[in-house]
Design a protein that fits this description.
Length: 216
């Protein structure tokens, strides 16, 4: 099992709005920009093969966005190259981190010095959510999917472990970057599930107002 001491102090960071990675979850990415192709090539030369996913924040008067203070590092666990030199990769979430400072250098991509302190549970076992009312949650989720004309494999959702279900939906559902950040920073699986429920309920209420329906 990994420990925080096993993780590097400096990692490449990939600021991508709305892209959320969580510990033990998997995030597929399409890499095609030259700077991120360079990042990927450098990543594959390291022992850890880590890339830090982090939400960017607009910086007034600058083309370079700031970085949110908390991100999540993923280990490159799968990749394939297309004929035109692009990559399809998969990152598997390892641990969240806190950005201490950006590191200046000669790489075309951004790097940061990070701290893993406070996220030790990310390196542990799968989390459970003892207070999870799955029946009520799936009912709410069904309303959300119906409002968005989405379909899913309900049998798989019913059988998925708590962490897999909550984290996968947190990553996949279409929320604003600041909402994704709130899901990332949730201190426990229970808190993330509560945040997710709040976001789904807010989206449903907003849809009802927009369609002229009654709000209860």
């Amino acid at each position: 099992m990994l420990k925080a001491a096993d993780l590097p102090e400096t990692i490449p960071v990939f600021p991508l709005p709305g892209a959320l990675l969580l510990p033990r979850a998997r995030l597929p990415l399409h890499i095609f920009e030259p700077r991120y192709l360079a990042m990927l090539e450098d990543c594959m030369k390291t022992r850890e093969r880590l890339i830090g996913m982090v939400q960017p924040c607009p910086r007034p008067g600058s083309d370079t966005p700031e970085l949110q203070r908390i991100g999540c590092a993923g280990r490159l666990t799968q990749f394939s190259e297309t004929e035109d030199g692009r990559y399809m990769i998969t990152l598997t979430g390892i641990s969240r981190f806190r950005v201490l400072e950006e590191v200046e250098g000669f790489t075309p991509y951004r790097r940061a010095r990070v701290s893993w302190e406070g996220f030790e549970q990310d390196l542990g076992h799968t989390e459970a959510d003892p207070a999870f009312d799955r029946e009520r949650f799936l009912g709410l989720l069904g309303r959300y999917f119906e409002s968005r004309n989405l379909s899913t494999d309900w049998d798989s959702l019913k059988q998925a472990e708590d962490e897999l279900l909550v984290n996968s939906l947190s990553m996949l559902l279409d929320f604003a970057p600041e909402d994704k950040q709130a899901l990332l920073e949730a201190p426990s699986l229970s808190t993330r599930r509560e945040t997710l429920v709040t976001l789904i309920e807010f989206t449903l209420r907003a849809g009802e107002r927009g369609s002229g329906g009654a709000v209860q």
